[in-house]
Structure formats: C-alpha cells, structure tokens
Amino acid sequence: MTELNLIAGEWLAGESEIENRNPSDLSDLIGMYAQANLDQLEATLVQARVAQTEWAAYGIERKQAVLMSIGDELMARAEELGRLLSREEGKPLAEGRGEVYRAGQFFTYYAAECLRQIGENADSVRPDIEIDVRREAVGVVAVISPWNFPTATASWKIAPALCYGNAVVWKPANLTPASAVALTKIIERQDIPKGLFSLVMGSGRRIGQHLVESPKVDAISFTGSVPVGKGVATAAVQNLTKVQMEMGSKNALAVMDDADLDLAVTLALGGAFGGTGQKCTASSRLVVHAAVHDAFVEKLVAGAKAMKVGHALEEGTQMGPVVSEQQLCENLAYVELGRSEGAELICGGQRLDLPYDGYYMSPGVFFNTTNDMRINREEMFAPLTSVIKVDSYEQALSTVNDTSFGLTSGIVTTSLARATHFRKNARTGVVTVNLPTAGTDYHVPFGGRGDSSYGPREQGKAAAEFYTTVKTAYISAGNPA
C-alpha cells in the first residue's frame, strides 16, 4: 500500500512513488510513498488561501484546542511514533521517542501562545486619536524541513504557523516520509478548515523549487544546507516572499585547562556522536587547551571506541547508522580528505560490517588538526570530530569564532570569569557553559549567525516575528463635546 499526499484536504496518489527503507536493515521496507505533481501543488496552494482566511477567523480558544490536541496525541504516542522515526532515520530509539515527545511540547507550548496574542496601544501625537498595534497572520506558509529531525523540526515550524493563524504547505525530506505522514494524519483529523494543512512530498528540485518560486506563498521556513538555502533566498526574493532559514554549522566545544575532564569528555561524546553526528548543533570541533590536551584525547578516544554502534531499535545501541548510502559515502570521503590534509584519524571513521545490512560507521576522532583544514571549515554532518590544540583561553575563543558559521558554541570551565567572557564574546546564536553544544529548549529563541541562519529566529515568542505581520490602526475618538 502506498502512503498518499494530503492535497487541498484530500488524500491523493502522486505521479510516482518512492521506497522508504530502514538504514539499520536494508531488507526492511517501511513502505512506498507518493510523489506529488506540480498540478497538485498548485491546487493545494489555491485551497490553502481559502482555508487560511477561515482559520484566521476562528476564536483563539478554538485554535488553542486544536494545537493542544495535536500536542497531546504526539506525547501520548511517543513510543509508537518514536519507533517509526528511529526505524526510518536511524537514531537510537530513546532519541526517536524523545524527539516525538518534544514535538508534542512544541504544539502544547504554541497552544498556550494562542491565548497570549496581546497587542499594544498608544496615544497619538495628534489629539483625540488612539493607536492599536497588533499582529496578524502572514498568510500561506511553506515549510521545508530536513530528515535529521523529521518530526521535531517540522513541528517547531508548523505549530507557530498555525498558532498565529496561517495555512501551511509542508514539503518534508524524502528520506523520512513515514514520520511526515504520521504527523499529517494527526493534524488532518483536527477541527481545521479543509486545505489549511497540506503534505506535498516530492523532490527538492521539482516540488521544492516550484514551492519557493510560487507567488501564492507568503513566507518560507526552510532548514537545510547553505547552498540550497541560498537558492531558496534567490527564488523567494523574486516575489518578495518572507524567508526564515536555518542552514549549516561548524560548532566548537572549548575545553579549558581548569575543566572537569570527565564532564568534558561526556559532553564531547554526546555532542559529536549523538544522532550519528547528523545534527546542526553537533560538536564537530573540539578546541582543547594544551595543558589538558593529551589526557582529554586519551579519554575521548576510549569513550568513542566503547560506544555501541548498532540497529537503532536494539537495546543498548548508543549510535545508529548513517541515514543513507549517499551520506555514508560523503562521510568516508571526508575521512580521506582529513588524512590528505595531514590530520591523523586516531580512531573510527570506518564502515562497519554488522549482522544487519545497513549504513554503519564507527565514530571517528581526528587528531593533530588545524582550524584552516577543510574538515574544520565545512559541515560534515557525520560521526566525525576534530581536536584542535590551543595554548590559551584567548586562542581558544579566537578559534571558536574563526568560522563562516555561527550556530552554537560551548565552553567547559570551572572559572566564572572565563564562562562569562565566553558567553559574551562567542559569536554564535546559542552559547552553552558546561553543557553540550547540542540540545536546546522549545520556549526560547533558536538560531545562529553568519552562514548558519537568515531571517527571524525560530521557537519561543520570537517565532511571532516571522509568522505574523504587524498592523497599526489609528482610531479617532472624536470630540466628546
């Protein structure tokens, strides 16, 4: 049976279909998934405009109930849907379960925000005139989400879009269609207008490109690579479409000479290899003070070698497979690139032969690297991390900031002075102190600098900047006499 697209309120077959296989076990066919055609995309964009007008007129309690219902169901089904997510994406079951539960929290958070949309008022500089300032829906929002967090990233875009009165046309990544269909079925069952929410699966080059080029779209929220993001921005500007983009990263964790080394190693291992390193917040550069460098590397390598790599659904698995054959090939190419640049691969970085036929790779650590190497300049999106030795805190901070990206950074130190200085001077959108670079909360802004982000921040109250437009109204009270 082929899973369908939700087009203008109807579940429809597409012009073709794709296979979805488990990267932990390629003999496991998860299902077949329809690929939409351009006529279907056009139909859903037309219906979205009609539905958005109706949805915007819903009372705030009615909207709140819809989002709360979605969130509650996601959290209640976290085990079931987390298993499906891990099966198709490859992250360990605990991570898959946690992602679905967090997605539910995004919806319940924005359910509450439905009731907190409070405007401002002011007196005019002119007599007997009052001013009312409030936010209104931006209109039809295109959501283009990635495969590495197929439920959570989509949810932190979809939930605020619906909260603030918009229609959503969602194009998920083709590598993780099962999670997309599962979330869509939950949303589609709610008390919403026909066509308010649409699922349009298909290739980025065809469906995605047409979507971002469409004058029927008022705003685009995109998460993906820098080259694709630049293409989205180029297409969007032709229609002056509002854009919000989260793109690449090259996050650094600085380990100081006064750091608790056991804590530092734990943070580095989780940050570098959690989710098989396929996170935009992954710790791909480990900037380590010379005084603790050798001891840190010894502990890090021991920890990496001890990690259990295996089937995402098996008990005890700490790191699952890479998501696809293409991703695995790219990862192995970076291993060879690092070696050619003079870096020493001190452990891991190899394809593993396990009982299941899957895309398994051992967690790899590069040693004797410099910050000008390509492996320390480019986002690898792999279970690979590089150690960079520095002689001082000042050099560490300079190295952390020496990148075209600027999403997250972290420091491990027992010095309040250093922690405070780092927090103020690290040029990233997110800074952590004695915590991993990966892992953020849903009720506060998320985003970066440089090539990492473009446009308003995601999550928390900051999301209103993107999903709404401001209206200023002037009201003449007249002369009371």
Describe this structure in words.
The chain is of the alpha/beta class and 481 residues long. It folds into 2 domains: 2-247 and 442-473, Aldehyde Dehydrogenase, Chain A, domain 1; 251-433, Aldehyde Dehydrogenase, Chain A, domain 2 (3-Layer(aba) Sandwich), CATH 3.40.309. The chain has 14 helices and 21 strands. It has helices spanning 38-56, 60-76, 78-89, 93-114, 152-163, 177-188, 204-213, 226-237, 261-273, 290-306, 325-340, 393-401, 416-425, 464-467; strands at residues 2-3, 5-7, 10-12, 16-22, 25-35, 120-123, 129-137, 140-144, 167-171, 197-199, 219-223, 242-246, 251-255, 283-289, 344-347, 364-367, 384-390, 408-412, 430-433, 453-454, 468-476. The strands form 5 sheets. Strands 15-16-17-14-13-18-19 form a 7-stranded mixed sheet, with helices on both faces. A 6-stranded mixed sheet has the order 10-9-8-11-12-20, sandwiched between helices. α8 links the parallel β11 (219-223) and β12 (242-246). α2 runs antiparallel to α4 (93-114), α3 (78-89) packs across α4 (93-114) and α9 (261-273) packs across α10 (290-306). The mean pLDDT is 97.
Key terms for this structure?
alpha/beta; Aldehyde Dehydrogenase, Chain A, domain 2; globular; 23% strand; 7-stranded mixed β-sheet; 21 strands; 6-stranded mixed β-sheet; 481 residues; 38% helix; Aldehyde Dehydrogenase, Chain A, domain 1
